[in-house]
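Progress against Task 2.4 (sequence-to-structure conversion) is shown through the following example record, which the project officer requested during the mid-term review.
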Amino acid sequence: MAFSKFFVIFTMVIILMADQSEADMNVRLEHFKHYAIIGQRSVITCIVDDPPDRAYITILRNNQGPYATFFVQVPRCCRIMKPFKEGYIADCHQYNVDRYDLIIKQVDFRDWGPWKCRVVDIDTSIGAAYVGDVIVKQAKVHLSTESTRPMLYDAVNLTCQLDTVARLKAVVQFLRVRHVNASVFGSLSQDLETCSVLNTTTEGYNARCGLGSNKSVANSKIYTMEIAKVSYEDNADWFCQMKNIETGYAQKSNRITLAVIFTLKSSKGMMARSAGSLDTGHIVLIALVVMPVALLGGVSSLC
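Structure tokens generated for the chain above:
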């Protein structure tokens, strides 16, 4: 088969430009105006239309040696040739042999720059290549709430907004910090255009997918978590984070401190709920803890 009849396309969620760099061949571009996100997973895909009978397909960054090399034999043979770089995974589509992936497990600024997909016909040594620039960006993670001083047992909503997160594949989590330790109370999975609540979400803390989470190309995505009834334990620092589930890297938001307001009414509610399970001595102790300081003074004068 004449090599001049096949085309090479190199696509990534972050490609902005392309060039024909080897051999006199037609190159068509599948153009995505997106970017890779620092700390998150990303994929470079090399697509070869009408490939030669036997070929080597190589993905390189800035001509610094192969990050992935594939041996391809028509019609349905694809073998990954090792070694490839640490932190990168090569994958061929067994049922679609014209697509070859280089998975970046955790993007950093070193991934910025020109990448090349090179195809060489083993029988004729004729080659073609496609070059594209990779753009790397830093996402923004911000936590907000309508009130940082909720009443005890009231409902409170926390909102986690992510910006610069098109084509995101990550887990979004809401965390509470008490005594230095951070615990996850709400957890959601974002997989391109699919958002779902994970079963690790704590009962009574209702995580929800929000605006932009159903669109892969949305640069901004919003997630919320409702604390159905604020408790004494929720009187703490809260933050949200965007986590790379494969490597564990997490980009954290700002912190918000919830200062739960206790009233005489809420104190009585606490005592009433405790009455069914505690003896009289314990009930008196709770009353002393939650009663106003003035009343405590009156009790002291009786001793």
